[in-house]
Amino acid sequence: MKYELTDKDFEFFRAECEKWIDRLSMRNWGITYARGGKETYFSTASINDQAKTALIRFPKNWRITYELKDKQLEIKETALHEILEVLLAPLQNPDLARDGELYDGETHSIIHRLTNVLKEKK
Fold first, then answer.
1. Is the distance from CB of 79 to CB of 86 less than 8 angstroms?
2. Ramachandran region of residue 5, left (φ > 0), alpha (ψ -120 to 50) or beta?
3. Burial annotation 79-95 (CB, 10 A radius, 16+ → b, else e)
4. Closest listed residue to residue 28, CA positions, set 120, 109, 115
5. What is the pLDDT of residues 82-120, one digit of tens each?
6. 57-69 as b/e, with b when 16 or more CB fall inside 10 Å?
7. Cα 16 vs. chain centroid, distance in angstroms?
8. pLDDT for position 40
9. Range of the domain at 69
C-alpha cells in the first residue's frame, strides 16, 4: 500500500525528532532534515559520527505491506527510531571501538542520556 506524506506530516515528524533531541540532550549534534528518499523506508539517516552531524530524510510516500492504522503514531515512532540511530551511531565506529577508553566514554555518555530520560516523571 502507498501512503502520501504531506508537508504537515513532515513538520510533525521534525517536531517529534526535535523533542527527542532535547530530551536526550543531543544539541551537540548538527541534525538537519530533508524531504525525499526511498519510499520503501519510513525515513533514513545519513550520519557522520565523528563530525556529529546527521541528515534525516523523510519520504513523500510510504510504500508498506500493511494497513496503516495510525499515521501519527507511526510518525512518532519513526522519529524516535531515527534519533536513537543517531545517538547510537558512535558505537558503530570501528576506530572508536579500537580505543577502549573512547568507546567506554561514549558508551557512558549514552547511558547517562538514557538514564535521565527514563528517570523523568510524566
1. no
2. beta
3. bbebbebbbebbeebee
4. 109
5. 999 999 998 887 777 677 777 788 888 889 889 988 888
6. bbbeebeeeeeee
7. 10
8. 65
9. 2-119
Q: The C-alpha cell of 44 is what?
A: 533514513
**Distance between CA atoms of residues 11 and 74, nearest Å:** 14
Q: Could you tell me which residues are beta bridge partners of residue 33?
A: 56
SS3 53: strand
DSSP 58-96: E-SEEE-SS--S-HHHHHHHHHHHHHHHHHHGGGG-HHH
Count how many domains the chain has: 1
C-alpha cell at 66: 500493511
CATH label of the domain that carries residue 87: 3.30.2010
Asked if residue 122 has pLDDT above 60, the reply is no
